[in-house]
Design goal:
single chain; about 200 residues; alpha+beta; 5-stranded mixed β-sheet; 4-stranded antiparallel β-sheet; Lipoprotein with Yx(FWY)xxD motif
Length: about 200
C-alpha cells in the first residue's frame, strides 16, 4: 500500500511538468501568430486566419517588381480556376471598397502582400476571363493591376501553384479588418491573356 502511494506520488509531478510545457507551447504559438498578423497591416485582427502560420517570422523588405501586362489561369482542385500573374503566382484581392484612390495596404502590409505591377497603364480587357481587368495608379510605383475594381496582390509565402493567402485576414489602424481571396475565373477561361495597349 505504501509502495503504491509512493509510486502514485512520483508520477504526479511528471504530469504537471507535461501540462506546464503544453500550456507554455500554446501561449508561445498564440503570441507568435498574433505578432505575425500585427506586422501585416496595423493592429492585429480579432480573428486569426489559418494561413498566418505560413508567414515567415522575418520578412524581407519589399522591392517593387514590374511584370509584363499579362495574366494566366490554372486549375486548382477545390478552387475551380485561379487567376495568376505571368510568373504563375496566385492573384488575390481583399474586400475593401473597389476603385480606391489610395490602397488600404500600405507600409509593412506590402511586405506580406505585394502589389501586382504591370508595364502598361491603359490596357484593353478582352472580356474572356469572366472578371474585369484594368489598371490603377499606385503612387510612386506605377500601374497596379485591378480585378473588378479591386487592387491585385500576391502573397509573400506563395510559390507558383500555392494558395496560402486565401481567406487570410488582416487588420488596419482604423480598426477595420479585410479578408483576402484568390481570384476565381470560369472553367472555360483561357490559359493566358496578353493585354494590348488602349489606343
Amino acid at each position: 500500500m505504501n509502495r503504491a502511494r509512493s509510486l502514485q506520488g512520483r508520477s504526479a509531478p511528471r504530469r504537471s511538468r507535461s501540462v506546464v510545457r503544453l500550456a507554455t507551447g500554446t501561449v508561445m504559438a498564440s503570441v507568435t501568430a498574433a505578432a505575425l498578423l500585427t506586422g501585416c497591416q496595423g493592429d492585429p485582427p480579432p480573428k486569426r486566419g489559418e494561413p498566418a502560420g505560413w508567414v515567415p517570422s522575418a520578412l524581407p523588405a519589399y522591392t517593387a517588381s514590374v511584370q509584363p501586362a499579362a495574366v494566366k489561369t490554372r486549375e486548382v482542385k477545390g478552387y475551380s480556376r485561379i487567376l495568376t500573374t505571368s510568373g504563375g503566382l496566385s492573384i488575390y484581392v481583399n474586400n475593401s471598397p473597389p476603385n480606391p484612390a489610395n490602397p488600404v495596404c500600405t507600409g509593412s502590409c506590402t511586405s506580406v502582400w505585394h502589389p501586382v505591377l504591370v508595364n502598361l497603364g491603359g490596357l484593353v480587357d478582352p472580356g474572356t476571363l469572366g472578371v474585369r481587368i484594368a489598371t490603377i495608379d499606385l503612387p510612386g510605383l506605377g500601374h497596379q493591376l485591378t480585378v473588378n475594381g479591386h487592387r491585385a496582390y500576391t502573397f509573400v509565402a506563395d510559390r507558383p501553384g500555392d494558395l496560402r493567402g486565401d481567406r487570410f485576414i488582416t487588420g488596419s489602424s482604423s480598426g477595420r479588418t479585410y479578408t483576402w481571396r484568390a481570384v476565381r475565373v470560369p472553367q472555360g477561361a483561357p490559359r493566358e491573356v496578353v493585354f494590348k495597349p488602349r489606343k
